[in-house]
Design a protein that fits this description.
18% helix; Gyrase A, domain 2; alpha+beta; 4-stranded antiparallel beta sheet; Cyclophilin; 13 strands
């Protein structure tokens, strides 16, 4: 019989937040516990819980200090409430979304595709086929607004980051950094190996929700061919 998981450690995160630590490793099982706990807390959401922010192996909870009587210590009360919750119960009632991401691989859209192929001792076409065969999970959003860190990449594609990061990576760029893959939502600096790009807008502050992807979503990459501009006869 598999022993029950060890309850998460609860510690203070500044003056108005708590951090639940479910472990220290980057793995699918720990991340699934984080997302299950986030779902259960969102379902039972008390009025003082302002925000729930999942990461790889931890969960940050932001607390409305004004929601407590002046005689109470808000973080102590919140910690006591959390310890009474079943944070490792099954995640029921919510189906994770499967989001297809169309990708233009290689060329100007993926300047590091050949380097990734050489490191993996594969052809560029084999790298594309393996990357497009993935069904990754959005483990967390971070680094930049809407940037998804994705679990589930083929280990054969793992490639070290660039020794010197680029000063500008185009929005929508699909990158590989070590054993992870991700998508740059907006232009900015970055050191991941860029193998392709999507035309989807991952983050738009004028949209609701602002981020196309959410923690717990599943992602499938779909290769597409970029249409060349027609020329006049």
């Amino acid at each position: 019989m598999t022993p029950p998981p060890v309850p998460p450690e609860i510690e203070r995160l500044g003056e108005d937040a708590l951090l639940l630590r479910f472990g220290s490793a980057i793995d699918a099982a720990t991340n699934a516990r984080v997302h299950a706990a986030a779902h259960r807390l969102a379902s039972a959401r008390p009025p003082w819980l302002l925000d729930i922010v999942p990461a790889y192996s931890s969960l940050a909870l932001f607390v409305d200090l004004a929601a407590f009587p002046s005689t109470a210590n808000p973080l102590d009360v919140a910690t006591h409430w959390l310890r009474a919750q079943d944070l490792d119960g099954e995640r029921v009632g919510v189906e994770s979304r499967l989001i297809e991401i169309p990708v233009h691989y290689g060329g100007d859209d993926g300047p590091d595709l050949d380097d990734v192929a050489a490191h993996a001792r594969l052809s560029a076409d084999e790298v594309v086929a393996r990357h497009a065969a993935l069904e990754c999970t959005v483990a967390m959003l971070g680094f930049a607004p809407g940037f998804p860190y994705l679990l589930g990449m083929d280990p054969a594609l793992a490639t070290p980051r660039l020794q010197t990061p680029r000063t500008r990576v185009a929005a929508g760029s699909i990158g590989i950094g070590g054993a992870q893959t991700g998508i740059y939502p907006r232009p900015g600096p970055g050191g991941w190996r860029i193998i392709g790009r999507t035309d989807l807008v991952l983050f738009d502050p004028r949209r609701e929700p602002v981020s196309l992807l959410a923690p717990g979503d599943r992602v499938h990459f779909v290769p597409v061919v970029r249409q060349r501009a027609s020329t006049s006869p």
